[in-house]
Amino acid sequence: MYKSVTIKRGKAGWGGPLTITPTDSRNKILCVTGGGIHPVAQKIAEMTGGIPVDGFSTGIPDEEVMVAVVNCGGTARCGVYPKKKIFTVNLTAVGKSGPLAQFMTEDIYVSDVTEDCITFADVEAVTASVKQVETIASQAKTKAQAREELAKMNAGKKKNIITRIGIGVGSVVNKFYQAGRETIDMVIKNILPFMAFVSMILGIISASGIGNIIAKTLSPLASTLPGMIGISIVCALPFISPVLGPGAVIAQVVGSLLGVEIGLGHIPPQYALPALFAINAQVGADFVPVGLSLGEAEPETIELGVPAVLYSRLITGPVAVIIAYISSMGLYS
Amino acid sequence: MEIIAALANSFIELFKAGAATFVSWVTGIIPLVIVLMTAVSAVIKLIGEDKVYSMAKTATKYTITRYTIVPILAVIFLANPMCYSFGRFVEEKYKPAFYDATVSFLHPVTGLFPHANGGELFVYMGIATGISNLGLPLGDLAVRYFFVGIVVILIRGVVTEKIYTMMKK
What we know:
Chain B: Keywords: Membrane, Transmembrane, Transmembrane helix. Chain B: One of its GO terms (cellular component) is membrane. Chain B: The chain crosses the membrane at residues 22-47, 67-87, 142-159. Chain B: This is PTS system glucitol/sorbitol-specific IIC component. Chain B: InterPro entries: PTS_IID_sorb (IPR004699). The complex is a heterodimer. Chain A contains 12 helices and 8 strands. In chain A, strand 3, helix 1 and strand 4 (51-54) form a beta-alpha-beta unit. Chain A is elongated, with a radius of gyration of 29 Å. By secondary structure, chain A is of the alpha/beta class. In chain A, the strands form 2 sheets. In chain A, strands 4-3-5-6-7 form a 5-stranded parallel sheet, sandwiched between helices. Chain A folds into 3 domains: 5-154, no CATH class; 158-208; 210-328. Mean pLDDT of chain A is 80; it is low at 128-138. Chain A has helices at residues 39-48, 77-83, 123-131, 136-154, 161-208, 210-222, 225-236, 241-244, 249-263, 272-278, 288-294, 299-327; strands spanning 5-7, 18-20, 28-32, 51-54, 65-70, 87-90, 109-110, 118-120. By secondary structure, chain B is mainly alpha-helical. Chain B folds into 2 domains: 1-47; 49-168, no CATH class. Helices cover 74% and strands 0% of the residues of chain B. The relative contact order of chain B is 0.11. The chains are: A alpha/beta, B mainly alpha. The interface between A and B is large, with 87 and 81 residues.
């Protein structure tokens, strides 16, 4: 009667996949999404054979809850159910966050879930459901019954306009809030550590006098077109470019060094544009196989694609510098 | 004793210049980046990446749009590293070229849309800091970097496509 389903995270989601199986004592799908049964909760109920419950109007003991469906923006609900060791499906794209973040683990929590994220758990379950096509009539009946029950539950408390506006505003505010959270996360995890490490290096370079050496060697190179073409060719050499690539760290450090020299007046400001391309001819050369597999390329494509990209850079690296050099005419003059 | 104190002082001096750089970056770069990144990524969340799928699919058919519009949409809407997943809309033989175009746009985009590659801002920001120190405006550089970036990714796409076809034969 009951079937297992697997719930994967959505595009911007986190956690999961969760595989859940209802039992006779634990078969309720608790929907806590601002009133009514959300389509995701309804689909889980239909597929598993469990019973959807509107958490806003019905209280049920935690021992009966198989899975909780929430639309939490990242403070409370998303952590409450994982803390109680109840599988939690969040409709909003929220990762491990809020005061209860430590309880949100990938084996109990999944987010940004839509109806498409829910599938039957294994091949057996799928074949079982195919076999049941013969008894489709009875199954259709149960589905219809489920819908009826659902309609009954939702009837009599049709969301009024104020509730609907409230939910709409809430979802917009949530998106802004989430964007802010992601930005701060990015600043703390990537931008600030990078600033710390590069400002330390730059400080030592300028205080120790190494800066003068760089000013005398790198600056003349980066303030002529042939010099910059030279830099781009070196960066694009197929046996060097994959080493220079990772995290764009080298390009970022060199960019910061050139920035200092531009600020001191050793390199004319209009050379900023071609320099941006010269120091970055190797961009992504280390990442070709990963990037291609993210684009669902075949293994043979990846095998030939890697050298194709690397060789192409030898041509396009210097070309990019020349185009940027021409385009920099009239910049800061 | 005095020698030790002098050594300690010069040791600290070594890091004071770095501290000054750090403070100027934190106060000069971070506030604007935070507000800009929050605003743009919120707008993109509101539009939703699903909405650009059909446009991206049609645009993969023509050489010019395949290496301009598709990578631009991918980078702005999906950001690094998920932008490469738009490769699945592209025919198998064009995938390496599409990757090359997409990855090459990840830095030109940061002048105007830092959210798209927040972890690698300093390729642009590093050089841009020098321009700011001279008291010059950054807008012109950011816009030119963006548009030259578009021309460059088109060239990279076309050249890599040719090289890949030749290697395959």
